[in-house]
Amino acid sequence: MNKNNSFFEALALLGEENSVDTEVLIEKVKSAMLKAARKAYPHSEENIRVEIDPVTKKFEMFIEQEVIDDYPIDENEINIDVARTIDPNAYVGGKILKEIDISKFGRMAALSAKQSIKGDLREINREQMLSRFGSKEHECITAKVTQVEPGRGTVTVLYEGTELYLFRNEQIPGENLEEGMSVKVYITGITNKNKKPVVKISRTHKDLVKRLFEIEVPEIYDGIVEIKSISREAGSRTKIAVWSKDPNVDAVGACIGAKSSRITAVVNELNGEKIDIIPYSEVPEEFITRALAPAEVLRTVITSEEEKTCVVIVPNNQLSLAIGNKGQNAKLAAKLTGFRIDIKPQFDTVTGEEAPEIKADFRLPEKTAETDADDELFAETDEMPAEDMLMTADEETAETTQPAEETAAPEADENAAEAAAASDGE
104: which DSSP letter? Predict the structure, then answer.
């Protein structure tokens, strides 16, 4: 009985570790033990019985023997006289269950049973993993941090009893995750589905931002407001272009929410990452101009529709702001629009001559009564326009202004602008 108790304790532990129901596990153990017994008793394949009952702690194996009045020829028969020492009511033609001593199984049979159980568990885990996460591929889930590895920085998170691993390169730079925290992660995919599935998760993927806005903004979830494109530098800044299918719904305002509640929820989940919400436009010049916010743009000229290149003219005092810190603003704008952007100052910093006309000329429309009304709405709700909400132009200028010794060489600014934009097109 003690041995049986130990067996069922080990069985329960095995089921818990592998998140497998005890009943399912018992069926797999039965199958494995039958295979082992049939190898040990090859002539009794059809007559072997296994009984496992976790309630009564019963674990027994038998060979079903036929009672005969002659000398038995193998393990499948038993003489009537011997049978009556086991069961006084035995009779010729009846059946007697002879218990099998499991400890007498050969080593190979025992190893075979063990390998069979392991194989069954792997298959169960594979099926459970695919069942649990198959429909969540490319979706956002909320998991709990259970362990942070100090050396490599790998974070273990738990979701519905399954451990997942958030590697350092998939974590938001500068973010400190601690045990017990709940975090939202994006499932980028499931690999090795046919053998041992691995669920890959990320907090740096740009689509995590999209899923977070779907959670916070009902208009996006319902399909009224559409996210056209996203560009992201995880941990620093994200630009997101939105468009409304309903002319009565302001896409940018819907994403910001009353008193900035919606966008603030997303920013907080992303550890304070700045987010620029850009109104999408089907006019490339207008879209590119908006994408470079908070910088002011004078002209945007598409130089090649086929190669998706353009030239943008900005006031000289907006050049650093348009490029951004380490070229970030230009890089994000290029990724958002899909255009290679060449940023040039309005006046040549050496000759003082104004930048020459480049065939086409595009300027933002003059401020209308409608935009004035929008400004008044923000004023009434103590909100700032979307492009300035998280960082004003002055703050961005202060963040990206170059040191005095660098501004002494204006040619470098132009080269930096061209290099930053060119790197994004590549």
Answer: G
How many whole angstroms separate alpha carbon 304 and alpha carbon 136?
A: 40
Residue type at 6 in one-letter notation: S
Query: Half-sphere exposure (CA, 13 Å, Cβ side) for 71?
Result: 1
Decide: helix, strand or coil at residue 191: strand
Phi, psi at 145, each rounded to 5° = -70, 125
Contacts of 216-221 spanning 24+ positions with Cβ under 8 A: 216/257, 216/262, 216/263, 216/265, 216/266, 217/254, 217/255, 217/257, 217/262, 219/244, 219/249, 219/251, 219/254, 220/254, 220/255
Structure tokens at 373: 């009304």
b/e for 140-156, b at 16 or more Cβ within 10 A? bbebebeeeeeeeeebb
Residue 324 near residue 330, CB atoms below 8 Å: yes
Q: Which of 327, 333, 319 is nearest to 278 (CA)?
A: 333
Cα separation, 41 vs 33, in Å, equals 12
Rg (CA), the chain: 35
Amino acid identity, position 414: E
* CA atoms of 40 and 102, how far apart (whole Å): 10
d(CA 326, CA 316): 18
Query: Token pair 């660098």 is at which residue?
Result: 406
Element (H, E) at 234: none
- Which one-letter amino acid corresponds to residue 180? G
**Distance between CA 397 and CA 316 in Å, rounded?**
12
The tens place of each residue's pLDDT in the chain, 426 residues long, gives 455 666 677 777 776 666 677 777 778 777 878 877 777 777 787 888 888 877 777 778 888 888 898 888 888 888 988 888 888 888 998 998 888 777 666 566 666 667 777 777 777 778 778 888 888 999 999 999 999 998 888 999 999 888 899 999 999 998 999 999 999 999 999 988 878 888 999 999 999 999 999 999 999 999 999 999 999 999 999 999 999 999 999 999 999 999 999 999 999 999 999 999 999 999 999 999 999 999 999 999 999 999 999 999 999 999 999 999 999 999 999 999 999 999 999 987 667 777 666 654 444 444 333 333 333 333 333 333 333 333 333 333 334 333 333 333 334 344 444 444 444 444
Tell me the one-letter amino acid at 51. E
Residue 341's identity, in one-letter code, is I
Residue 330: what residue type?
A
Alpha carbons 328 and 306: distance in angstroms, whole number: 25
